[in-house]
């Protein structure tokens, strides 16, 4: 039993939600579509196993994710957190539900986007990344799987587990993280990285939107790394790509961060590129233009087959937790992990880790 207890009048927890189905998974977490029992509101619930967090010393990762989501609360194009909770077995994030599903799901269905469609979504994604950078956060994990579509089809960036907060412009981070296909050369070389890694990732994402595959793609991870570091950027001969777009991609995917577009003047510098000359960027940012993809909200915009593996075992752990049958209890990790966005007075600051003595 934990020595530390969290005191709030009425805390929202796992028992307040009806689990409907799994809609996502990560290395040590799963995301469920859930319904709040008292009002029927639909949410996405991200559940993280505490055992894995403690055994693998991932406390700081979860701490950062929680604090970042609270820090960016209310900003457009970024996933909104409604509640955070900690119990004896799980850490939970209750987030807004984006019924449009992952951009990855839609891209796989349509194979690739035309340039107008790619331009629309790229502008929205850039705006979300700009909001993060204005909050001194490097995202570090831009990929179609982490970009959701809301009920109208606008993008919503989620999953801040790899994001790096509190970064000065002249400061470098040294963690090796991200998805292989989207890693910038400086990340692979482990020479220190900063905000330009996000501009490289934006380039890799844009390349995938218009071609259907990331640049330097291979089934072999080491081969991907070698291609990113050593090969020149090439474009598929069977796909027509405008000269302006090729120029932008080459500048985003520059192997040298100091020569990469965006490094000098951020997202503004990218959106000033000639490729965007024939669209109204402000109208897109203000959501005055209807998105090219209109999700079928009566359908299910997630690939259910992706989440079958391990689901039975994870679901059993949830049931055991709710019925107090879990074999092992874990102490509280944080002094105040709980968060409720509906309260006007919240702990909006960071949540400190408990010391070993307090645990």
UniProtKB/TrEMBL annotation:
Domain AGC-kinase C-terminal: 277-349
Pfam families, per the entry: Pkinase (PF00069)
EC number: 2.7.11.11
InterPro entries from the UniProt entry: AGC-kinase_C, Kinase-like_dom_sf, Prot_kinase_dom, Protein_kinase_ATP_BS, Ser/Thr_kinase_AS, STKc_AGC
Any one GO molecular-function label of the UniProt entry: cAMP-dependent protein kinase activity
SUPFAM superfamilies reported in the protein's UniProt record: Protein kinase-like (PK-like) (SSF56112)
This protein's record includes keyword Kinase: yes
Domain of life: Eukaryota
PROSITE patterns reported in the protein's UniProt record: AGC_KINASE_CTER (PS51285), PROTEIN_KINASE_ATP (PS00107), PROTEIN_KINASE_DOM (PS50011), PROTEIN_KINASE_ST (PS00108)
Domain Protein kinase, residue spans: 17-276
Residues the record lists as binding ATP: 46
Keywords, in A-Z order: ATP-binding, Kinase, Nucleotide-binding, Phosphoprotein, Serine/threonine-protein kinase, Transferase
CDD domains xref list: STKc_AGC (cd05123)
Stated family: Belongs to the protein kinase superfamily.
Name used for this protein in its record: Protein kinase domain protein
Organism, scientific name: Ichthyophthirius multifiliis
